[in-house]
């Protein structure tokens, strides 16, 4: 038996909702987004929105899960400093190719809560998959993962805030030096 295909109307409606939502994110803070305005922009009624999503939070969660999933798909080990260097490069190269929406969601102060949730999701997965990578107790490894996850984002946000004045290679090199030399006391070469 063939898998059931999604109705084209459903696909179009979800796309209209998603497009309107993303446009609104680019224009305003999350707390200013309303279902009323979203449905007007998507040219649907309120009931149609609720057929697809329970709330704006559910729609945002879908976006969050997609972004986190893209990072989680990039498998990496943390057992050697070369692994960490590679992950820093992967992060910056990936982010540099994303739409302005990603920068808005990950770098705008009003969406800090979303970045924090994405970071927790990704780093939680990384901790689970790389438990014991540093040969330390769980509490110490949690500190290392928190350091790596937060400092990488801080450096990326600063690069964006500065208008990406440094070249991609320059910011990767500088970030790698800052992160890895700070981590070299606990990660084997």
From TrEMBL:
Residues 11-71 form the HTH tetR-type domain. The keyword Lipid metabolism does not apply. It comes from the Bacteria. Keywords: DNA-binding. One of its GO terms (molecular function) is DNA binding. Coiled coil: none annotated. SUPFAM superfamilies: Homeodomain-like. InterPro entries: Homeodomain-like_sf (IPR009057), HTH-type_Tx_Regulator (IPR050624), HTH_TetR (IPR001647). The keyword Signal does not apply. Residues 34-53 bind DNA. This is HTH tetR-type domain-containing protein.
């Amino acid at each position: 038996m063939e898998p059931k295909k999604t109705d084209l109307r459903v696909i179009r409606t979800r796309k209209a909702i998603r497009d309107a939502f993303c446009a609104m994110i680019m224009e305003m803070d999350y707390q200013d987004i309303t279902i009323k305005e979203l449905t007007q922009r998507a040219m649907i009624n309120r009931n149609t929105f609720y057929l697809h999503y329970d709330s704006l939070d559910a729609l945002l969660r879908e976006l969050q899960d997609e972004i986190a999933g893209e990072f989680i798909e990039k498998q990496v080990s943390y057992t050697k400093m070369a692994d960490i260097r590679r992950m820093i490069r992967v992060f910056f190269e990936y982010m540099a190719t994303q739409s302005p929406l990603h920068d808005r969601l990950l770098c705008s102060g009003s969406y800090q809560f979303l970045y924090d949730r994405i970071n927790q999701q990704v780093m939680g997965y990384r901790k689970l998959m790389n438990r014991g990578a540093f040969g330390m107790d769980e509490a110490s490894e949690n500190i290392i993962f928190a350091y790596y996850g937060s400092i990488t984002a801080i450096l990326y946000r600063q690069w964006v805030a500065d208008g990406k004045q440094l070249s991609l290679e320059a910011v990767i090199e500088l970030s790698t030096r800052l992160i890895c030399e700070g981590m070299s006391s606990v990660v084997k070469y």
